Amino acid sequence: MLAIRDQRDKAAFAKLFDHYAARLKGFVMRAGAPKAQAEDIVQEVMLTVWRKAHLFDPERAQVSSWIYQIARNRQIDVIRKEARPVPEALANEDESDDGPDAGQVIALEQETDKLRQALEKLAPAQREMIERAYLGDLTHTEIREATGLPLGTIKSRIRLGLERLRHELKDLRQE
Questions:
Q1: Helix/strand/coil (H/E/C) assignment for every residue in 17-58
Q2: Pairing with 168, which of 8, 114, 151, 159 sits 20 to 30 Å away (CA)?
Q3: What is the pLDDT of residues 160-169, one digit of tens each?
Q4: Residue 152, in any domain of the structure
Q5: Which of 92, 153, 150, 94 is nearest to 123 (CA)?
Q6: Sign, Cα dihedral of 55, 19, 114, 160
Q7: Between residues 114 and 48, the one the model is more confident about
Q8: What range does the domain containing 17 cover?
Q9: Is 46 a member of any domain?
Q10: What would the pLDDT profile of 116-128 be if each residue is shown by its tens digit?
Q11: Which residues, by range, are in coiled-coil regions (predicted)?
Q12: How many distinct structural domains can be found in the chain?
């Protein structure tokens, strides 16, 4: 990411794209986007990563966190755009709107913000494992290969991190 940010390195961007594109597509599809829309969102996210690389600050976020936040924001933008009435829908007010309403979008944004805050409270080692497993969509074996850590350590960090997240987010479950 630093090579992309500092030198506009196209080869580094190609590697970054290859690493994240499929993972982002899965992430967006699990959040409810159809396949074609997920592919469009991934293309837009990666284009944003290239265009806004100068804004990346490794002191504030990991590369994966930064990219997944861009993806979440882009997906919310798409949901909002779909929820806007088009002139035909305005003429046919009796048609039902199956899209999310503004309240749903705001609630999603608030939940995302609470999750981000809860993730920031985790120990860095736990946060990294959870981000790799859930945001990065990596298997425990893939994490082991990427980090060199023993499988038991990876599983323990994920388990402990998830317990802490459950505790931090218990208010969300009650709402």
A1: HHHHHHHHHHHHHHCCCCHHHHHHHHHHHHHHHHHCHHHCCC
A2: 151
A3: 998 988 888 8
A4: yes
A5: 153
A6: negative
A7: 48
A8: 1-86
A9: yes
A10: 888 888 899 998 9
A11: none
A12: 2
- The amino acid sitting at 110 is Q
- Structure token digits, residue 33: 């986007």
Kindly state the tokens that stand for 9: 């390195």
Upper half-sphere CA count for residue 97 (Cβ side, 13 Å): 16
Rounded Cα gap, residues 161 and 159, in angstroms = 5
- Integer angstrom CA distances of residue 51 from 15, 17, 44, 84, 165: 16, 13, 10, 27, 33
Report how far residue 154's alpha carbon sits from residue 158's, in angstroms, rounded to the nearest whole number.
Answer: 6
Confirm if 162 and 169 have CB atoms less than 8 A apart. no
66-73: average pLDDT: 90
C-alpha–C-alpha distance, residues 75 and 102, integer Å: 14
pLDDT band at 150 (very low <50, low <70, confident <90, very high): very high
Pairwise CA distance, residues 104 & 99, whole Å: 10
Amino acid code (one letter) for 147? T
